[in-house]
Write a structure and sequence with these properties.
Elements lengths: L32 E5 L4 E7 L7 E7 L5 E8 L5 E7 L6 E9 L5 E8 L33 E3 L3 E4 L4 E5 L2 H8 L5 E5 L8 E7 L10 E5 L4 E5 L13 E8 L7 H7 L4 E8 L2 E3 L8 E6 L4 H5 L4 E6 L5 E3 L4 E3 L4 E6 L4 E6 L11 H12 L19 H11 L20 H9 L19 H14 L26 H9 L18 H17 L14
Parallel strand pairs: 8-11, 10-12, 11-13
Antiparallel strand pairs: 1-2, 2-5, 3-4, 3-6, 6-7, 9-10, 12-15, 13-14, 14-18, 15-16, 16-17, 16-23, 18-22, 19-20, 19-23, 21-22
Helix pairs in contact: 4-9, 5-6, 5-7, 5-9, 7-8
Amino acid sequence: MKSLRNWTIVILAVMVCAGAMIVSAVASPVDVRAAYHEQDGRVTISGQLSSEAGKLVSLQVINPLNQLDLLDQTAIGADGSYQFSYVLKQKINGTYFVNVNVEQSDQVLGTTFEVKVISPSTPTPDPTTPDSGDSSTAAPQASIVEPEVKSNPHVVVDPTSGIVSAKLEKEAVDKAFSTGDSQLVVEIQPVEGAKQYQLFTPASMFLTTAEKRITIVTEFGSITIPNRLLGNVDLHSATEVGFVIANADRSSIPDDMKDQIGHRPVLELSLVVDGKAVDFNNSSTVVTVAIPYQLTEEELKDPEHIVVWYIDHAGEAHAVPSGKYDASTGTVTFKTTHFSTFAVGYQLKSFADLSTVEWARKPIEVMASKGIISGTSDTSFQPAANISRADFMMLLTKTFDFNADVTTNFRDVHPIDYYYEAVGIAKQLGLAEGQGDGAFNPNEQISRQDMMVLLARAMGAASIQVAKGVASDLEAFSDKSYVASYAVNDIAALIKSGFVEGSGNRLNPTGYATRAEAAVMLYRIYNKQQNQAVVPDAPNIYFER
């Protein structure tokens, strides 16, 4: 049992994705069965194994989007049976793949189960509601409430330059927000041959302290802008602010970068104040961007590897960690604190030393492709190596896309350190408190319980819903007494919310976290964060193709 600590699930065969299941040759009667209960979304996975009672059984479930849906472990019963049961967090149409492996065995058993999500029938029209006469198919509805205030301003088209301009007058803005709504959606209708769309708004809109947002929708993409966005720009003497959404000029992009981008969109976002370009960057707030995009046949096989790059003035590409494909809207979405050139890409990053951690391969590859985690070299990840406090803080801030103005830091974290900004952001946001003497001990290996405490704090800061945990939630774990008092509620919350399963009946809270374990944990939370509609900056916008 000692060889499998905490959450480490060793599967000594390549797990199968995209439809091909691996089933090793079976010398003795073993089986795996999966049943999906449509009514409550519960999945039950069970079977019979010839291995001795008490040995650990590891489970991996892959959803139809080729994403990791569940990692778990349990012990074989006295009669050789085992069982897992969980509720799908998100129901996705298609085939789910189940893989089961026994401790100290190279045998992987597989099965599948099907999920069919039945769309609700179209309700009968209310006879008192006038018929619009529009027979077109309505766009799918997301979980975020559609903003009530919309505007379709008059546009001016310059056919020579391909610039389409629209303007919001102050009276129109004041009237739109006078009803108490906090978001205004401005839809600029597509114009054939357009190369750039720009919307001019009154500067006063960005001086108010009330929480307001404006979403600008164009055929190239949409941007959602909070009114506090320009808090670091002096607008008191300004009259007008303009937001520009354009198809970027690719001529200045290096050839090797063009090859990586291929046919995919490249968007240029910029800001003008009273007609003058402003080099905008504000780390204390974010703009949410959505770019309409249709996946290729290759990308459909693994959409998690859709990425976003920011291209600087020198033509260098930088990963935007929040970039991902949203299948429900058919868009690539990301968040940014600055206006620049952004490109959609597709990247399959892997390492040569992942064969011993097949249970962590997909999380590592996805997070590396998005620029959240890095290898120790171009070809090596060292998954079994323990992770330092500083390196984990870097992964944490990238996963959650945290930003802040770093004005102070711990006494043992210096501006020349590669982790200076990440640790400083964590300190500024109240995630990292140090060791009590003003030190952070960045090179010290991080324990599992400290990793979980930081994760719980980060999820709170990101407004991700987590169940409230108490000490009694840890009763099932034999080493619960080793959990530090400051970590009890946070660890209990992560367990109750399904982010931590433990290893059998153990948590191993004082053990050190490995690079692979950190990647898997952050991958789970990254997907939860991206899929949970709790951030008001993400409007319910769809694009017609």
